[in-house]
Amino acid sequence: MDTEQTLHNNMVLDLSRSIAPGIDGWTELLDLFNNNPLSKTEINAITSMQKLFEKLVDYETIKVGKYGKVIKLLQSNGKEQFNVLVKIMQNCQDAIAEMKNAAGNQLKPADNTGTPMQSVKKSEAPSNQLTSDDKTETTMQSDREHLSPEVTPQNVGPSGGPSSDKYPRSYTKREARGKKGLMVIFNFTFKGENSERKHAPVDKKHLTDFFKNELGWYVKDHEDCTVAEVQKYLEQARTTLKKDKYNNGSCKYYCLFVAVMSHGEEEYFITKGGTKFKYADVFSAFTNKKLPEFAGRPKVFLMQSCKGKELQNDIHSDHIHDKCPILDDSDILVIWATTPGCKAFAKSSDGSFLIEVTIKHFQKKFASDDVECMLSDIRRTIAYDPKYRSTPDATEPYRQMPCTWSTLTDKLYLIRYHCLLGKRPR
How far apart are the C-alpha atoms of 5 and 307, rounded to whole Å? Predict the structure, then answer.
């Protein structure tokens, strides 16, 4: 017997036969979803009807058996070719509704006296095992309505039970809809000094071009700050997140990024005037305990600085045993430019290795990959690409090995900000 998910999957196949990349109307179809709810980058990454429906499910524009929003959008376009798509979706929606009604009628008592039904024996209970149809390539969404009470998320303990995707999530793509990220940059140039970071303006441009211009995030840039100024701007950022509410009660920000670009050592970076500032003091300013209003939302720290004076050559071990003073805190990701005790490199024309490579990978893959997935590619590129070698007064090339420390509890995606339905929240 067909399930709701099977009917949904078959519908997607039928739609694919009617319109696909390279066929007249495909580009026009995708344009209907531009900023409603998909970004241009997300649209450019869609190569099939299946991919389109996966995105629409992510944004909850559709659910299995509920296609009204898309049907209405297609009808409003007036293109005759879309009438076929409307008919396919409407037929599937009607069939699923009829299936639900039939299932509801089977559960009614035999008489109308209101006598409660007898308990169903366990052997007669619906099976929760996926059918072969649930495993086909066109599966877009798990059929969660078919889960028995014994395996629903609220009844599962911390060990065992269903996979983690059954648990509530705090920063998935759908949770970020209509919200933006907050980016705080501390960029130290040391202009006019012997230790001047001539690549600092390039690093700043890489970050602002992507996070502000590409993603539409709110970016605050601070340059050559003293210790007191760093503390002041950290407090300002924390205050911003404490008051993170529109007038309608919804949140503005789903994520925080803090970038620190300076000279540094194992436990601190250098501020204006040569004063040291501990990395730990940056992290601890945004812990869940100190910032309960932002608890459960991701905080990412991008630390572009040396962590010592050692040089890494081609046979340097990349095993990382880093200490972090905030082990008990969740939803934090720290991205270090290099491993403990070692130097980080840059080129005046391209900027810091970490910033340049990170932004290049973010621009290329943010629409499809989560941050930690992209970080593995970033580490590999900096470690092994011949371009990212430095020869500081030596006859052999030296390498740089970035490392990360994470307590993120979910996949973190970089979401371009756009207002839902074209209306900016107040």
Answer: 52
Last residue of a domain, one of 78, 100, 122: 100
Residues 131, 180: Cα–Cα separation, whole Å: 39
Beta-carbon contacts of 405 under 8 Å, excluding residues fewer than 6 positions away, are: 322, 324, 332, 333, 334, 336
Burial of residue 169 (CB within 10 Å: 0-12, 13-18, 19+) is: middle
Structurally, the chain folds into a number of domains equal to 2
| Residues 193, 52 share a domain | no
What percentage of the chain exceeds 90 in pLDDT?
29
Who contacts 273 (Cβ-Cβ below 8 Å, separation ≥6)?
226, 227
| pTM for this predicted structure | 0.55
DSSP 286-317: T-TTT-GGGTTS-EEEEEES-SSSB-B-TT--
Secondary structure (3-state) at 224: coil
Whether 210 and 342 share a structural domain: yes
Q: What is the pLDDT of residues 316-349, one digit of tens each?
A: 333 333 444 333 467 889 999 988 888 888 888 8
- Residue 65's alpha-carbon distances to 4, 9, 12, 89, 408, in angstroms, are 7, 11, 12, 9, 33
- Same domain assignment for residues 44 and 190: no
**Residue 168 one-letter amino acid:** P
Instruction: In whole angstroms, give the CA distance from residue 362 to residue 299.
Output: 17
Residue 201 belongs to what domain range? 180-313+322-407
Residue 401 lies in a domain: yes
Contacts of 145 (CB under 8 A, 6+ apart): 4
Asked whether residue 194 falls in the same domain as residue 88, the answer is no
**Tokens representing residue 344 in the block:** 């980080």
The CATH number of the domain where 13 resides is what?
A: 1.10.533
Query: Cα–Cα distances in Å, from 221 out to 254, 269, 416?
Result: 19, 17, 19
- Helix residue ranges, H only, 63-171: 68-77, 82-106
261 and 359 part of one domain:
yes
User: H-helix or E-strand containing 223?
Assistant: strand 218-223
- Domain presence at residue 337: yes
Tokens of 304: 């572009």
Question: Does the pLDDT at position 189 exceed 70?
Answer: yes
